[in-house]
Amino acid sequence: MSYETIQVEIHGGAGLVRLHRPEALNALNARLIDELDQALTAFEADERIGCHVLTGSEKAFAAGADIKEMQAKSFADAYLGDFISRWECVARLRKPIIAAVSGYALGGGCELAMMCDFIIASETAQFGQPEIKLGVIPGAGGTQRLTRAIGKAKAMDLCLTGRFMGAEEAERAGLVARVVPEEQLFAEAIKAAQIVAGMSLPAAMTAKEAVDRAYESTLAEGVKFERRAFYALFATEDQKEGMAAFIEKRRPKFKNR
Ligand code: CAA
Hints:
Blueprint: E1 6-11, E2 14-19, H1 30-45, E3 51-55, E4 60-62, H2 67-70, H3 75-81, H4 88-91, E5 97-101, E6 104-106, H5 108-115, E7 118-122, E8 126-128, H6 142-150, H7 152-161, E9 165-166, H8 167-173, E10 178-180, H9 185-197, H10 201-216, H11 219-232, H12 237-247
Parallel strand pairs: 2-3, 3-5, 4-6, 5-7, 6-8, 7-10
Antiparallel strand pairs: 1-2, 8-9
Helix pairs in contact: 6-7, 10-11
């Protein structure tokens, strides 16, 4: 399949999607979201893939929703068309997805990165929700996911002033899992994705589901969900193999990966 606004590669068990609209700093237009959905859907169904990676260019992960495409929309266009709902294709994935962020991750770009399971950033990454400067607010989960990730004080600061936050501050605040030099970003993200892809897929998908459940439930409910999911994994061959391999001091050979 050939795409116009993204590039797709497979590296071992890692399925990589690179946002590619260099003329617009990877601004997210309808075509790009459509192609992203198609590519990720294909990876979800591809047995070779155990983990997705979403990345952009050195200069920009994505500079937000495409302002030129949005500017003329009326309330009815926006509300009835509900164009942002298409972006949920990233949040709906069941296989793990890692965002590899370099340069600008602004507005919808920051929101897209936050829909991923974790973010690896280069030292040059800049995160922000500058929609306020356009007379609007974040529309793809920014006020919600950012607040859960970094707390009210910093989320308010970013959403109200529109200032950008560098990689170091983002890591300190808990938005970013790792920060690496720019030239190591790609290798680091692919290596992390291949490690995830080497695990038992049911275990990796269940771990993702359980961590996500922490956002949607009380502690008591979440712990109950986790325990049921933990017990359920004893029904997999991979649990027998993983524990046998530990006891026999060898590497596990997972079937479902
Ligand atoms: N939409 C459309 N085009 C964009 C864009 C965007 N979000 N961001 C950058 N571009 C385009 C610019 O218009 C420019 O195109 P032209 O050369 O044709 O004029 C090109 O990309 C390069 O951009 P700049 O010349 O502005 O580059 P810069 O290095 O001087 O500045 C920047 C970089 C600070 C990221 C600046 O481009 C910028 O502020 N971009 C907009 C960021 C923003 O406001 N994002 C939020 C969008 S709204 C949103 O995302 C809503 C939501 O929550 C869903």
